[in-house]
Design goal:
This protein has 434 residues and is an alpha/beta fold. The protein has helices at 15-27, 41-52, 96-106, 127-135, 170-181, 198-203, 236-248, 267-274, 311-316, 321-332, 350-360, 393-406, 425-432; strands spanning 5-8, 29-35, 56-63, 69-78, 90-91, 112-116, 139-141, 150-153, 162-164, 187-191, 206-209, 215-219, 230-231, 253-260, 278-287, 290-298, 306-308, 335-337, 363-368, 371-377, 385-387, 410-412. The termini are close together. It binds shikimate-3-phosphate (S3P).
Length: 434
């Protein structure tokens, strides 16, 4: 049986913060330097889209004294309205964040642009971006099924809005904020369930708690943003796979250095701790407004099943649910989730994808419109099990970890999709094998 031990200093840089640093860099006047930008395909898509809109940028890999590299991005902009009309449709590949947040910036440009993506992204819902941008005065059209291609006829005369998010979505909150930065007056974006707050932190936006518990993000219009350097900490949504590995495989102990511990991203760690997981923190500090620290995780043999039925919790852990479900199933044979219908609109339908693959691994599950339950491990399949990843990086990584935890031979249908967010995933795991 394998054991995983060691210190990880090369966790992928956070995907959400990398996207935002690049987009803010395109709107800020001057030179923006981003240290530890992610090399994942999704973040590279954002840079390619910005370059296609005329933003000048370069990437460099700095070699670290102890080995490994850090990616640095430098970009130049003259501030708002520095983008130029792209010559062709803007290809966002698999990246919903690129498409949705970029739409907010394109809505304020005085030209027509078209956003397209890969097969998975072309199926994802885009009404949620069309509605607020239309209210602000942009002309946005979608396919007959309300998906991409997203055609945006932008305007320099965007109107400020007060907009309440119909779904808890940090992408939509951010796209409205990016558009509102260009508007002629103050806008307010209201969320009833809190979602990740990197855009607010990175732009220094004020927020207001409303008496009924909702939260308003206040966006002043047309106030020049001065370029500033950004540092991108390690991605907690990538860390979760290595945390699960360390907890599940007997005798393992893994240290993850410099992970983003922003409370709007660390909800899954609280759930793991409640389930009895041995997780500790060290070197906790704040860098550029973001909480970061080291995570120490050790194999734990008495985990309790995870059950999630609180909407507020779901919004906090949306990207980690596949791993949490697989983790709880492997550790205890049980898991339960409700109020998570949003999972069906991610890179794949993550409810069906997790259920189908857990069943392949011998678990008995029940699927609901808004979640699922893992009832028990009914059988232990022999031989190699085929895992269908549905071209979804988080499904592929969750089951790669399950293969180690259950000591099963699993054939992942398209493991290369992991490069979307975690290009060094298998190298890191091999490096931890004691
Ligand atoms: C993200 C927000 C979430 C998340 C995605 C990244 C972001 O999507 O699932 O991986 O960086 O804002 P939604 O906004 O659709 O919930």
């Amino acid at each position: 049986m394998k054991v995983f031990k060691g210190v990880v200093t090369t966790l992928p840089p956070d995907k959400s913060i990398s996207h935002r640093a690049a987009l803010i860099g395109a709107l800020a006047k001057g030179t923006t330097e981003i240290t530890n930008f992610s090399g994942g395909y999704d973040n590279q898509s954002t840079l390619e889209v910005l370059q296609a809109c005329g933003i000048r940028l370069r990437q460099e890999l700095d070699t670290l004294p102890g080995g490994g590299t850090v990616r640095r991005v430098c970009m130049e902009s003259d501030g708002f309205w520095s983008l130029s009309c792209p010559a062709a449709p803007l290809m966002c590949n698999n990246s919903g964040s690129t498409m949705r947040m970029m739409a907010g910036i394109l809505a304020a440009q005085p030209f027509e642009s078209v956003l397209v993506g890969d097969e998975s992204l072309m199926k994802r819902p885009m009404r949620r971006i069309q509605d607020p941008l239309t209210l602000m005065g942009a002309d946005v059209s979608l396919s007959p099924t309300n998906t991409a291609p997203v055609t945006i006829r932008g305007t320099r005369e965007l109107k400020p809005v007060t907009y309440e998010l119909p779904v808890p979505s940090a992408q939509v909150k951010s796209l409205v904020a990016f558009a509102a930065l260009h508007a002629d007056g103050e806008s307010r974006v209201i969320e009833s369930l809190p979602s990740r707050n990197h855009t607010e932190l990175m732009l220094g936006l004020h927020t207001e708690e409303l008496p009924d518990g909702r939260r308003a993000v206040i966006v002043p219009g047309r106030q020049e943003i001065a370029a500033r350097p950004f540092y991108v900490p390690g991605d907690p949504s990538a860390a979760c796979f290595l945390i699960a590995l360390g907890l599940l495989v007997k005798g393992s102990e893994i240290v993850l250095k410099d992970v983003c511990l922003n409370p709007t991203r660390a909800g899954y760690i609280a759930l793991l701790l409640d389930a009895g997981a041995a997780i500790m923190f060290e070197n906790e500090r704040t860098v550029g407004g973001e909480a970061i620290g080291d995570i120490i995780v050790s194999w734990t043999d008495s985990i309790q099943p995870i059950r999630i039925s609180d909407k507020r919790v779901v919004a906090d852990i949306i990207d980690e649910i596949p791993m949490l479900a697989v983790f709880s199933a492997c550790a205890t044979g049980e898991f339960e989730l409700h109020h998570a219908e949003e999972l069906r609109t991610k890179e794949s339908d993550r409810i069906s994808a997790v259920v189908a693959n857990l069943e392949q691994c011998g678990f008995r599950c029940e699927e609901y419109p808004d979640g699922f339950r893992v009832v028990a491990r009914a059988s232990q399949p022999s031989g190699s099990v085929k895992i269908e990843c549905f071209h979804d990086h988080r499904i592929a990584m969750s089951f790669a970890i399950a293969a180690e935890a259950l000591d099963m031979d699993m054939a992942l249908s398209d493991a290369e999709v992991i490069g979307v967010s975690f290009p060094n995933f298998f190298d890191l795991i091999r490096g931890l094998e004691a």
